[in-house]
Amino acid sequence: MEMSLQLNYKTPFCFKLTPFSVLTPSSWHKASIRVSCVNASADFSRKRQQKKSSIAKPKGSNPKGFVPKSSIGSSSKKNPRVSKKGDSLAPVVSEVLEDDNKQTLDVIIDDDEDEFSVEEKFVVVDDKINKIAREFGESSLIDETFDVENIPIIDDVQLYEEGNSYVGDDGNVKDSEGRRLYYAEIDGNLRGTYTDTNGEIAGNIVEETSAAIDDVKINEEASRMLKLKLEENLRKQEIERIAEENFLRGAKLFVYPPVVKPDEDIEVFLNKNLSTLSDEPDILILGAFNDWKWKSFTIRLNKTHLKDDWWSCQLYVPREAYKIDFVFFNGQSVYDNNDQKDFCIPVVGGMDALVFEDFLLEEKRKELEKLAKEQAERERQAEEQRRIDADKAVKEEDRLQARMEVEKMQDTLLQLMKNAVTSIDNVWYIEPSEFNSNDSVRLYYNGNSGPLQHAKEVWVHGGHNNWKDGLTIVERLVKSGLKGGAWWYADVVVPDQALVLDWVFADGPPQNAVVYDNNRMQDFHAIVPMATPDAQYWVEEEQLIYRKLQEERKLKEEVIRAKAEKTAQMKAETKEKTLKKFLLSQKHIVYTEPLDIQAGSTVTVFYNPSNTNLNGRPEVWFRGSFNRWSHRNGPLPPQRMLPAESGTHVKASVKVPLDAYMMDFVFSESENGGVFDNKFGMDYHIPVFGGIVKEPPMHIVHIAVEMAPIAKVGGLGDVVTSLSRAVQDLNHNVDIILPKYDCLNLSNVKDLQFHKSYFWSGTEIKVWHGKVEGLSVYFLEPQNGLFWVGCVYGRANDAERFGFFCHAALEFLLQNGSHPDIIHCHDWSSAPVAWLFKEQYTHYGLSKARVVFTIHNLEFGANLIGKAMAYADKATTVSPTYSREIAGNHAVATHLHKFHGIINGIDPDIWDPFNDNSIPVPYTAENVVEGKRASKEALQQKLGLKKADLPLVGVITRLTHQKGIHLIKHAIWRTLERGGQVVLLGSAPDHRIQNDFVNLANQLHSSHNDRARLCLAYDEPLSHLIYAGADFILVPSIFEPCGLTQLTAMRYGSIPIVRKTGGLYDTVFDVDNDKDRAQVQGLEPNGFSFDGADAGGVDYALNRAISAWYDGREWFNTLCKTVMEQDWSWNRPALDYLELYHAACKLE
Q1: Does an H or E element contain 128, and which?
Q2: Which residue stretches belong to region Disordered (predicted)?
């Protein structure tokens, strides 16, 4: 086998090794092999001192990739190799004899005598070079471009195998007798090197060759580096060719490799002469990946060796890339941006755009999680700092209080010590007369001196230092034979730190005493003669008081904290249950599995067309999207729904993207559309949880003339406040605009301050801003005095006053630069907002807004309400039943397509029996029986009623014909007939009705003073106590748009008795007659109801209720618990209103 590699052939070296090999065993065994040894040229030279000498390696770096890196022992199955140590590198041989026989290894260097310049470093390359040569071709090896700086030249080396030596199975060279041969570095005269019979090396052998180099690693490294050099050579040739081709066709840009793949380095080339940057000294690339969405970069370009003025830079392409987007610029303001189209290069084999978007969403989710954790930690630290600061403040406060109490004690004790005596003649005395704290003394008392002269026993109840520690001395006195037997005595130990003793005498121990001698209400006091308080005493007293205050404060704070945590937990649980009920509220039509849709998951939508307008259609198609139909991917392709496993439902599965916060869908009869079920124009919407994108907040502005608690007349004020709070809690922005009445309850307005002034209709209007119940409120104060009349309603010009306010409110929004999404106006009093907005403000900067109008009571201002209905984008009333009851009214009848009934709610923070200061014992559904019992007793005591376990019926109402006053009167008498108690709280705006009830009150208080009480003036705290203490709350309204009384009653565990009308029908489900109707709503029956507006109707419900109280107390108590667990807050109505708001915003 023979191979010869030649590159820039220079000085020949011929090595004759006998027996010796520098190849792998398989390469040299029994063969005469001709290979090449690498000899690198350098800029320095050495003279050879003699022919037969080892060649020293000059100082300096080795050619990259051709340096032996490790050595191994000769015992491993690897070849000996030229060794490197220090600055010398030379072929080494050794002769080893394990017996008396000797073998000689010769190295003959054939060279002329002339001087030569070499790097004098040799690395022998094995037959792997043959493989490389075959792979890349000999022409590549001899290409002159390969001869660059530090590229080695090849000299011929001949190796001859002589004798009978061979390579054994263990990889070692052995002689004909199987003895192992070793190697050593040769000095100048290698022929004189011998081994003795002990195997020790004799002669001038260099120690640095004692360990051989790892042949396999050497070969691999050499092969790798040679391959890299060859690849680099080919790369340069290809780049030059591509550059030439691009230049000839006028292309100024190319990349190498031409096919760009992810997770690789590329080189970007720009021909400066063909660029708009041809005159610029600096060129930089500015870019990013994937339509400029991922990992931006700025890199400076450098001039290349290529002709035609090509510049380039290296760029790493990340694994997520599907496209590279970039421009070139001079680092300042001059750009080459491909004629404003930017440059882009596709990336092959990586993510596509959709996969990348999902990847981005996942990255954003991780980032949001990280930010949330960081924010939580910041909040925790801030809370901890607040706690530390608060703790420091209260400690200072407690120290100050302790100091003040000590000062007060000092003054008191000094006065007591001044007035105290050691005895009172013929009343009491102490022996000995001189004593100190902790001493035992005998106290004598003359029983005939006071009210205990006939007592069979006499006891002393005492303390010290003005009773500082309460009762610390209790002793029974013994009769003394002294002074005629009227005296008593007891041995007493003077308390520690006592300065003054305090006591009274009694006829028994503390729990049983009846008659006392307390020195005519002044108690007895005796000075401790030998006790003198020093400064240290008062320091210790102050510290004791301080510690006591701290302990009391901590206990109080712990109670408050625990209560707040439980309140928050109950609210969260209630909200979660209500949301699930909301999601299941249309299960007879549509529901999902799982019920709680998570972003990134797959959800199955079940639809029952038999309960919709698609009943009987042969096909049902699902059409959906996300985020209120605004998702970046647009609508989903229509999907034919498949039959579900059971029932009449059909189903379709949908993958929910990570950036979804809402799932939107409708149903159609065919792929192309046809008949739709779009929930009467509202569409179906189901919230998505866990997404990385939150729903953008809406801006809602309420324009109203009432607001609880600062300007409340009726339920409208409660709705404005509570609805606004509930929507704000769902992360939307809410403002309220209200007249600044001179009768406002400003104590409930926080941070009230002047905002601005503006003019409208020739009148200056001052604007004030404040916070009410956490809501942003703007108060408009016209300087024409329209709202300086001491009341909300009741003036002859109310329509004029509120019309002016409506126009002024819209003008304020315009001049303030507001752009709300929704303007919500209420009842006749702010109805003008609807048409004024559409006629005068839609085209003047408020075009974004949509108008929602709510009817609270159609009994007032029907004409104004009708006009507002015509102009509003969406309209509501306060319960579904009331919406049906007034559907035929001329004000509503022609607008039913945009008219919706949404039940009102109550504010669970205002009406909360667990945190109500107006009731004696806080309670929840878990201890409702105990809580209501305590409240009933407190109510009976407060109103002077008989304290007895009787059924108690409460009535809390305005006394008007609408509220069924004739039914209320009948119910009062009927309850008394059944042995119950009645409490009524309310007043009548009509003085005739008021007087009628005054007369009734007088009659009842005379005939049933212990069981009836009529309180004919509104009392807010008393209303809370009635709700908590009553067993039943009666609401017999003739008509009731919604009604909040029955909802508040259930919040406090009181059972409602109502007439079936309006919102009363929508919220109260009769325990005997409405089980199915309640089940449809996901509820349990919760009260008693009747139909008629006469005495018989009231009796039907009232008799059943009272009988249930008498006959089934355990069942009744369970019913109280059930109604308390039902959620009648704004949790559910707020979701319905948001759906309505969004539907309004969709309108053109």
Answers
A1: helix 128-136
A2: 48-88
| CA 563-569-572 angle, 5° bins | 140
Where b means 16+ CB within 10 Å and e means fewer, 927-959 reads bbbebbebbbbbbbeebebeeeebbbbbbbbeb
Choose the final residue of a domain: 677, 708, 743.
677
Residue 1057, H or E segment: strand 1055-1059
- Per the domain annotation, does 759 fall within a domain? yes
Token pair in block for residue 963: 């509220």
C-alpha 481/C-alpha 478 separation (Å) is 10
Q: For residue 998, what is the enclosing H or E element?
A: helix 991-1007
Verify that 822 and 933 share a domain, yes or no.
no
Per-residue H/E/C for 938-980: HHHHHHCCCCCCCCEEEEECCCCHHHCHHHHHHHHHHHHHCCC
Look up tokens 């209103």; give the residue: 1137
User: What global pTM score does this model have?
Assistant: 0.69
Q: What is the pLDDT of residues 240-251, one digit of tens each?
A: 999 999 999 999
Q: Which domain holds residue 747?
A: 699-901
Residue range 53-82: mean pLDDT, rounded: 36
Distance of CA 493 to the CA centre of its chain: 64
What is the secondary structure of 1078-1114 as a DSSP string?
HHHTT----BEEE--SSHHHHHHHHHHHHHHHHH-HH
Number of compact structural domains in the chain: 5
How far apart CA 367 and CA 350 sit, in angstroms, is 23
DSSP one-letter code for 445:
E
Q: Which long-range contacts (CB under 8 A, 24 or more apart) does 1069-1078 make?
A: 1070/1101, 1071/1108, 1071/1119, 1072/1104
User: In terms of C-beta distances under 8 Å and separation of at least 24 residues, what long-range contacts does 621-624 make, across chains too?
Assistant: 621/667, 621/668, 621/669, 621/670, 621/671, 622/652, 622/654, 622/665, 622/667, 623/665, 623/666, 623/667, 623/668, 624/654, 624/663, 624/664, 624/665, 624/666
Distance, CA of 131 to CA of 138 (rounded, Å): 11
Look at residues 660, 731, 601 and name the one whose alpha carbon lies nearest to residue 364. Answer: 660
pLDDT of residue 213: 59
pLDDT (mean) for 169-179 = 56
Cβ contact 1084:1074 at 8 Å: no
Give 398-405's long-range contacts (Cβ < 8 A, gap of 24+).
398/546, 398/549, 398/550, 398/553, 399/546, 401/545, 401/549, 402/542, 402/543, 402/545, 402/546, 402/549, 403/542, 405/542, 405/545
Residue type, position 985, single letter: L
Domain of 1041, CATH number, reads: 3.40.50.2000
Q: What is the pLDDT of residues 850-869, one digit of tens each?
A: 999 999 999 999 999 999 99
| Spatial strand order in the sheet of 650-655 | 590-593, 602-607, 650-655, 642-643
CA-to-CA distance for 579 and 1082, rounded, in angstroms? 12
**Contact partners, residue 200, CB within 8 Å, separation at least 6:** none
User: What pLDDT score was predicted for residue 217?
Assistant: 81
Amino acid in position 118: V
Paired sense of beta strands 1032-1035 and 1055-1059, if any? parallel
Query: Is residue 477 classed exposed, middle or buried when 0-12, 13-18 and 19+ CB atoms within 10 A define those classes?
Result: buried
According to DSSP, the residues that pair with 442 across neighbouring strands are 431, 491
Chain-centre distance for alpha carbon 508: 65
Is the Cβ–Cβ distance between 783 and 763 less than 8 Å?
yes
Give the residue among 585, 655, 595 at the shortest CA–CA distance from 625: 655
String of DSSP letters for 802-813: HHHHHHHHHHHH
**Angle, vertex CA 681, rays to CA 677 and CA 685, nearest 5:** 75
| CATH code of the domain covering residue 507 | 2.60.40.1930
645 and 778 together in one domain: no
What is the pLDDT of the chain when averaged over all its residues? 84
Q: Which tens digits make up the pLDDT trace of 659-695?
A: 999 999 999 999 999 999 999 889 999 999 999 889 9
Coil/strand/helix, residue 669? strand
